[in-house]
C-alpha cells in the first residue's frame, strides 16, 4: 500500500500501566458473553414473533368484525395469519440481533472514555481508511476466489438467507440496502468484534479471540440443518464467513477503532447487494 503510511497499532487504553490480575478466566468471560448473546437473541426473536402475531391477529380480527364473519377455528386463524413476509422477517432480525448486540455492549463491554478517545483519534488518521479499504477489498476478492474454486470442484452452496434477500431486493430495495450496508454491519461488528473478540484482545489473547469470535461469526451465518447445504457446502460458507470475521478482527486491532471493520463490512455487503440486485447472484 504505497499510498498509506503504516502506523503502529494503537494500544488499548491503559496498556502502558500495570494491569491488575483478572479475577476470572477471559475464556470463561467469552463463553459467558456468547451464551448471553444466544439467550438474548432467542428471547428477542421470540418476542418479535409474538409481536408480529399480535399485530396480525388484530388485523385479521378487525377484518372479521368488519365483514360480520363468525369466529374462526384455531386452524383457520393460523391459516389467516400466514407467515411473516420479507420485510417483517428483516425487521424481526434487526430487532433481535441488533437488540442483543446493544444489550451485550452496554451490559458487558461498554467503551470507556479513554477507548472512545482512542477511537476518535484513529478516525482522523488517513491510514485507518486506507487499511479499511484494503481489507474490505481483500475480503471481497478472497470470498469470490473461494467461491470460484469451490464451484470448479462442484461445490455450490446456497446461503441460508439468499431467498429472503432476493425477495426483499425485489420488493424493498432501498430498505434492504439500508439494512445490509448500514445497520447489519454496525450491530454485527458491535457484537462479534467489540464484545466477543474485544474481551480476549483486552486480556492479552488476541489470536484466541480471532479464532473463537470468527468461529461464532461463521456459525451464526450458516447453522447446520437450517438449509439444504451438505457438509462440503457448509464448510465452504464457514471458511468464507470465518475468514471474513478474522480479517475484521485484525483490522479492528490494527486501527484501534471499531468504525474500521464496520466500514469494511459495509463495503463487502454493498458489493454483495449490488450483485444480488443487478445479476441476482451473491
UniProtKB/TrEMBL annotation:
<feature type="transmembrane region" description="Helical">
    <location>
        <begin position="86"/>
        <end position="107"/>
    </location>
</feature>
<keyword id="KW-0812">Transmembrane</keyword>
<feature type="transmembrane region" description="Helical">
    <location>
        <begin position="128"/>
        <end position="150"/>
    </location>
</feature>
<dbReference type="InterPro" id="IPR003675">
    <property type="entry name" value="Rce1/LyrA-like_dom"/>
</dbReference>
<feature type="region of interest" description="Disordered">
    <location>
        <begin position="1"/>
        <end position="21"/>
    </location>
</feature>
<protein>
    <submittedName>
        <fullName>Membrane protein</fullName>
    </submittedName>
</protein>
<feature type="transmembrane region" description="Helical">
    <location>
        <begin position="207"/>
        <end position="223"/>
    </location>
</feature>
<dbReference type="GO" id="GO:0004175">
    <property type="term" value="F:endopeptidase activity"/>
</dbReference>
<feature type="compositionally biased region" description="Pro residues">
    <location>
        <begin position="1"/>
        <end position="13"/>
    </location>
</feature>
<dbReference type="InterPro" id="IPR052710">
    <property type="entry name" value="CAAX_protease"/>
</dbReference>
<dbReference type="Pfam" id="PF02517">
    <property type="entry name" value="Rce1-like"/>
</dbReference>
<keyword id="KW-0472">Membrane</keyword>
<dbReference type="GO" id="GO:0080120">
    <property type="term" value="P:CAAX-box protein maturation"/>
</dbReference>
<keyword id="KW-1133">Transmembrane helix</keyword>
<feature type="transmembrane region" description="Helical">
    <location>
        <begin position="235"/>
        <end position="252"/>
    </location>
</feature>
<feature type="transmembrane region" description="Helical">
    <location>
        <begin position="30"/>
        <end position="55"/>
    </location>
</feature>
<feature type="transmembrane region" description="Helical">
    <location>
        <begin position="170"/>
        <end position="187"/>
    </location>
</feature>
<feature type="domain" description="CAAX prenyl protease 2/Lysostaphin resistance protein A-like">
    <location>
        <begin position="172"/>
        <end position="271"/>
    </location>
</feature>
<feature type="transmembrane region" description="Helical">
    <location>
        <begin position="259"/>
        <end position="281"/>
    </location>
</feature>
Amino acid at each position: 500500500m504505497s499510498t498509506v503510511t503504516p502506523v503502529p497499532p494503537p494500544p488499548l487504553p491503559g496498556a502502558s500501566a500495570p494491569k491488575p490480575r483478572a479475577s476470572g478466566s477471559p475464556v470463561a468471560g467469552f463463553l459467558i458473553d456468547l451464551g448471553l448473546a444466544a439467550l438474548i437473541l432467542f428471547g428477542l426473536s421470540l418476542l418479535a414473533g409474538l409481536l408480529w402475531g399480535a399485530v396480525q391477529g388484530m388485523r385479521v380480527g378487525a377484518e372479521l368484525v368488519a365483514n360480520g364473519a363468525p369466529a374462526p377455528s384455531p386452524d383457520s386463524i393460523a391459516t389467516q395469519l400466514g407467515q411473516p413476509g420479507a420485510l417483517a422477517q428483516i425487521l424481526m432480525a434487526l430487532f433481535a440481533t441488533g437488540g442483543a448486540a446493544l444489550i451485550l455492549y452496554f451490559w458487558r463491554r461498554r467503551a470507556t472514555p479513554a477507548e472512545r478517545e482512542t477511537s476518535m483519534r484513529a478516525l482522523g488518521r488517513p491510514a485507518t481508511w486506507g487499511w479499511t479499504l484494503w481489507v474490505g477489498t481483500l475480503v471481497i476478492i478472497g470470498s469470490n476466489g473461494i467461491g470460484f474454486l469451490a464451484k470448479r470442484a462442484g461445490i455450490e452452496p446456497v446461503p441460508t438467507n439468499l431467498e429472503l434477500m432476493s425477495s426483499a431486493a425485489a420488493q424493498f430495495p432501498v430498505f434492504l440496502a439500508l439494512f445490509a450496508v448500514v445497520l447489519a454491519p454496525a450491530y454485527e461488528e458491535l457484537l462479534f468484534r467489540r464484545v466477543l473478540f474485544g474481551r480476549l484482545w483486552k486480556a492479552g489473547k488476541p489470536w484466541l479471540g480471532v479464532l473463537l469470535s470468527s468461529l461464532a461469526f461463521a456459525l451464526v451465518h450458516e447453522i447446520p440443518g437450517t438449509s439444504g447445504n451438505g457438509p462440503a457446502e457448509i464448510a465452504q460458507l464457514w471458511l468464507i464467513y470465518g475468514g471474513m470475521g478474522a480479517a475484521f478482527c485484525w483490522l479492528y486491532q490494527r486501527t484501534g477503532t471499531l468504525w474500521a471493520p464496520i466500514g469494511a463490512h459495509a463495503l463487502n455487503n454493498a458489493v454483495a447487494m449490488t450483485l444480488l440486485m443487478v445479476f441476482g447472484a451473491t
